[in-house]
Amino acid sequence: AKSPADTGDEPTDTGDEPADTGDEPADTGDEPTDTGDEPADTGDEPADTGDEPTDTGDEPTDTGDEPTDTGDEPVDTGDEPEPCADGTFDHDGDPATACVPWTVCDPGSYVSTSGSATADAICEACAPGTFCEGGDAPEIDCADLAGYDDDADPATACVPWTVCGDDQYVGGELDNMRDRICAPCPGASTSEGPNAAFCTPHTPHFTAISAGSWHTCGLDENGKAHCWGYNYYGQVGPIPDVVFTAIAAGYRHTCGLGEDGKAHCWGYNYYGQVGPIPDVVFTAIAAGYRHTCGLGEDGKAHCWGYNYYGQSTPPDVVFTAIAAGYRHTCGLGEDGKAHCWGYNGDGQVGPIPDVVFTAIAAGFYHTCGLDEDGKAHCWGDNYDGQSTPPDVVFTAIAVGSSHTCGLDEDGKAHCWGDNYYGQVGPIPDVVFTAIAAGFYHTCGLDEDGKAHCWGDNYYGQSTPPDVVFTAIAVGFSYTCGLDEDGKAHCWGDISAGQSTPPNNVMFTAISAGPWHTCGLDEDGKAHCWGYNGDGQVGPIPDVVFTAIAAGYDHTCGLGEDGKAHCWGYNGDGQVGPIPDVVFTTIAAGFYHTCGLGEDGKAHCWGYNGDGQVGPIPDVVFTTIAAGGYSTCGLDEDGKAHCWGRNNSGQSTPPGDVVFTAISAGYEHTCGIRAGDRIVVCWGSQVRNLWQ
In 3-state terms, what secondary structure has residue 125? Predict the structure, then answer.
C-alpha cells in the first residue's frame, strides 16, 4: 500500500475520535513497500487547530495597571504604613499586627539600649555600689549620692554615709560600697565635725613642773601627769590613773599626790624610794636621788628609801615646805627657819644662813632658798658658781646638779652655775610662771602653761610634748621625727652627730640607725649624717629614692622602679644578695633588712639569731620596721605585729591602739597613733606614753 499523496494540507481536525469497533485490522503479513523517497518539504508547518491559541509573535500591551486583587489582602495603594507610637515597637515586621510596648526595666536594672519603633529597649543589671530604681531611671553611683550600697543589691536605695561629729575623726576610706568610719579621738585630743580628718592633740597646759635627773614631769590643768625623757626604770610611765595635785621627779623615780593626799610613786625602787609609802595624807612631796619625803597634814615630815647618810630621818619639826636633794633633805619650819639633814660633805646641810625663808630647793651638793625680800641665799658646793646667785628679787628658785635658776618679779628666768649642756642658757625669751632644774637641763612654764626646756636632751628630757609629728624614727638611744613642715627634730644621743640633722632641708621621709640617720628630700635625694665607719652614710648611689632605711652599719633605699639598693657593712648578708622582688617598703635593722612586696608580703634577709628575719606572721602588711634584733609591721587595720627579740618589751605592742606609722629602735618601738598623731612608744627608750 502506498501512502496517499502529500497535498501539503493538514487534514481537518473535526475534534471527533473515530469510533472504536473493538476490531483490530487484519494482519496481511506484508510490510509496506519502501520506495526510498522522502516526502517533499514545503516549508510550511501544518496548522495547529487544537486548543493552543495562535502565537502571533506579539507581546501583550502593558497598561501599567496591576490586576485587581479581590481577595482578603487590602489594596496596596503605594503608601507606607504608620510607624509604631513612642514606647512601642513592631515586634514581627507585620504592619497588620499591633505594636508591642517596650520592655520596662525591673528595679536593679537600667536601660542600656533605648527602644525604637522597630526594636525593643534592652535592660542590663546594675553593678554593686549603684542604685537603679527601674523603669527608664538611669544607673546612679551611690558615691554620687553621698552614700554607699549596704547590701550589694542595686534594687535597694543607697544608704547615706555616716557623718563624723565632734571629737571623732574619719578612721577609714569610704567609697560606693563602704560607709565612712568614725573613730573616737584618742586620749585627750579633740576635733570639730563634720568629718574631721584628724583630731587636734591636746598639748598640755601645765600648772606644775618638776625636773628629775634625765626626765621631766608636769601636771596639766586637769591634774593629769605627763612625763617625758629617760624611762629605763619606768620613771616616765606608765603613770597611775590619778588626778594629781603635786608632782616631783627624782633621780630614777617619780612621785605625785592625788586629790585625797595619797602619795603615788613609780620607777626605780631598789632602795624603797617608790614604796612602801607611809599611810599618811600628804600636803607636799619631794623626790631625791634615792629617797622620797613628804609632809603630813600636821606638818610632820615622812621619808622613805635610801638612808645611809640620814637623809630619810627628818627632825621633829612642823614643816611648811620640803625639798629632797642628792643625799640630803631640807625643810622650812613654821617660823621660816631652814632645817637640813643628811650628807654634808660640801656644806649643803649647813651652816645655814640665819634668814627667814619663803622657799627652799636642794640640789646635788648645794642648797638654795629665798628670803622674805626675794633674795636668794645658797650654801654648799660652789665649784661652778652655782651657789653665787645674782642680785635679783626672785619669786621662785630651782636647784639642779651644778646649776641654779630663779624667776624674777617680771617672770624672767635667771640661771647660774655649770653650763656645759646649756642648762644655764641661752634661755627662751618667755615670761615664766614656774621653773624646775634637773641634772643638766632646765624647764619652765609660760603664762599659757606651755613648757619650755633647755640644756641636755640626751633622753628627750628637754623636748616637751608640743610637736605634731608626721613621721618618727628611733635609733639606738635617740629619736627623730618630722613635723608637718618636713623639718627634722631629734633628741637623745648626739655623740656621733646622729641627732644633728641639716637645717636647710625639708624631708619627706626619715630613718634612724644606731649612730647615723638618713632622710629623703622632696626630690628623692638621700641625705645621711652621723657615724660613717662602714660607709653607711655614703657614698650614696646616684638614684632617685622613694624610701630609705638606716640599719646598724648599713643603709638601704628603694629606687623609683621598686628595686632595692643597699650600702655599708655586709658581714651577715644584710646588704645582699637581695631577693628579686619589686618592693614598696624597706626597713633596715642592726644586721638584717626587710621589705614588703607589692602583695604586702614581708621579705627579710640577713642575721636571724633572734627570729627577726622569720618566721614572719602570715599577714598582709602596709608598712614594716626593723629594729635592733626585732621587726614590726602594721596590717591593713593598723594593728601592730612584732617578732624577734623581746627582752625589753619592744616586740609587745599595745593591742588596743590603731597606728598609721611605726618605727623600731634597739630596744624600743614607736608608732604614730591614728586620730591625733601622738607618738606612742613601748620598750626601754620610751619618750612618753600618752594615755
Answer: strand
Q: Residue with C-alpha cell 534592652?
A: 122
pTM greater than 0.70 (yes/no): no
All 3 cell numbers of residue 651?
616586740
Helix H or strand E segment including 593: strand 592-597
CA distance 650 to 408: 45
| Residue 584 near residue 562, CB atoms below 8 Å | yes
My answer on whether omega of the bond before 276 falls inside 30° of 0, hence cis, is yes
Sequence-ordered list of residues with C-beta below 8 angstroms from that of 76, at least 6 positions apart, any chain: none
Distances (CA, A) of 238 to 281, 687, 690: 23, 11, 9
- In 3-state terms the chain splits into helix, strand, coil percentages (rounded to 5) of 0, 35, 60
3-state class (DSSP) for residue 143: helix
CA atoms within 13 A on the CB side of 139: 17
Strands 301-305 and 291-296: antiparallel
- For residue 351, whether the previous peptide bond is cis, meaning omega lies within 30 degrees of 0, is yes
Scored b (16 or more CB within 10 A) or e, 456-476 reads bbbbbbbbbbeebbbbbbbbb
Whether residue 238 is preceded by a cis peptide bond, meaning omega within 30 degrees of 0, is yes
What is the per-residue pLDDT across 517-573, written as a single tens digit (0 to 9) for each?
Answer: 999 999 999 999 999 999 999 888 889 999 998 888 999 999 999 999 999 999 999
Cell of 457: 636632751
